[in-house]
Structure prediction request, 753 residues.
Amino acid sequence: MNADADVVTLARTLRTEATRANERRVLVLAGGRNRGYDRLESILDALSVPITGTTLVGPEDRLRCEHRRQVNASDLLGTTRAVIAVDVHEGLQPNALGTVTGAVDGGGLLVLLTPSLETWPDRRGAFDESLAVPPFEPDDVTGRFKRRLVETLRAHRGIAIVDLEADRIEADGLTDPAPRLAAAAPTPPTDHRFPAAAYEACLTADQVDAVAAFESLFADDRAVVVDSDRGRGKSSAAGLAAGAFAADGRTVLVTAPAARNVAELFERAGELCERLEGGDATVDTRRIETAAGGSVRYLEPSDAIEDLESADVVIVDEAAALPVATLESLLGADRVAFATTIHGYEGAGRGFSVRFRDRLAESDHEVTDCTLVEPIRYAAGDPVEVWAFRALLLDARPPVDQLVTDATPGTVEYRRLEPEDLLADDRLLREAFGLLVLAHYRTEPNDLARLLDAPNLAARALLHDGHVVSVALLAREGGLPAETRAMMYEGGRVRGNMLPDVLTSQLRDEAASEPVGRRVVRIATHHAARSRGLGSHLLERIRAEYESAVDWLGTGFGATPGLLEFWRENGYRTVHVSTTRNDASGEYSALMLAPTGDDGRALHDRHADWFVRRVAALSSDALDDLAPDVARALLRTVDADAGPPLAVTDHEWRVVAGAAYGPGLFDVDPGPFRDLVVRYLVDDPDTVALTDREERLLVLRALQGHGWETVADRLEYHSTGQCMRALGDAFCPLVDHYGTDAALEVRARFVDE
Prediction:
């Protein structure tokens, strides 16, 4: 055959069919890299696509068009192209594949330049090498993800495959779709409050409904939830609403995981404001100001939480990619909207739809819901979207509630989820991965490849009648050779060994990377079977399996009181807390260990001891903004035997007892007070009876050193004097329990028994 002409003809036919149906098509050029580029250049020369509508994603800028590396593929989010070519000869990043697929417009082509499909799964690229975390080597990484990807390419409609080595078209990708009826133009609601121009800018009836839903935010104590798959125009709808509010003189605060997430929102808002006000609107990429005195401005989530009261309306875009704790804080706004992607190409945890929606329902907000179904960039049922969802498991979800609602620890089976078993059983893979999506606010296509290919990861699950009801992802860490440990100690970073890395590089313990452990990276239980002990049962079975195989089990997570208590109940103890907040979650991270052997016990004991020794100083410095309830829970999850014995001199006891029972003052020497509070919180909480408010007072004033006025205001004392007296009262039972004879002598002078 005339291979070049036939491939060009195929590409033209694919694009013609895609344009007629307003769908997209995939063209796979499989074989030698140079031959693939030769065919691609011929295709681009023959297609009537402007150079500005074409992007090459690959390691080299080999075409006369826009070029992006795979690591920068996220730059294409929120944009569209007629043709995107992806060169994966040197490796494939699943996240990049998802992103570029979403950026192909209706009538467009996604061209994949791949090695031979028979040999591609056995080749290792840069992403595969990133999965070979020490002590593993690249040869230990498998090719299961690419094997599955190749199978989906061959199985799905709308995907043409050209075998460049054999000079043949393996599949033409043509679907011969039926003609579609033209959609009716959307019309605004009859009683709308936003300007008609906001609705005239909508492209679908779904978008009209979404913009109308935002009108409910004219009233107090309201919340709006707009959700959709990507490409349905939810961000555009949010932008039109933001612009309409600003044109009405309202201040709109917009936040999202990153500024790039709101580019489309600001573009639509700016267009509307300029249309409504002409040259009187000031439009920038992160701030819009109108002649009516309104504005739209972007802030990072942590800054937005601090500035909620300054805005009339708060809009949270890509809400599913934010942690539940951050979303809860944003609920402090009186009028707030959450726009969220259900199945995101860049990862969208279902923590929003499952966990946060419960918090929202319990709030004082009246909620208006809106779901956008109709695609804007391409027609419904687009075969490329169907393929991408399956290939990257973007729509993976746990089993339906009815299948696991009766699950209990007594009805479930513990199972090792071996990667080959997951590859052979698509339902099992979808259920397990769907639950892992639940376990974290951001689960990405890269995580699917890690689950199938990474040699350091293992998955364990509880199955009820064959369905996944609880799942955990475990990472092997530690067991590193002496030269690697020395490199870490001297400042080098080692991938995939989070706990040993922190304990070695930050806490200066070169021996911390020698014992072997398993870190629980994620754990999740189906929401229909929670509060039955299934998560604890899974951890118990994991411990039984690994007890003789590793030195320790561990975990690290954004610290909240509930999570800390869960891990404490399962035998894990805190050994460290980060000194900076996670940029995305806004939380401090806790590291916890559960020793399973002598070396693990020694590792735990010395780090728990060091933590108790430094925590008082940390509390008044780097952790002075740690929530009191988190601080209490952290110290309660430290081993009670950790740290030095309480060392308070007789003189210091007289100062403490004098402040508790007499006219003494805390301010003259806070040191012994802090030591006493740390020992009390680390010890068995039943030894001394204090109220939650009293413990918060001890944390805020004694440990964190906040001023009297600040503490009195936060804990709602009537005055600083009342707050001072309350602190003294809180120390009385501590003096009674821990005090030496010197302290009790002071007590006796002021207490009439």
About this structure: The first strand starts at residue 25 and ends at 30. The mean pLDDT is 92.
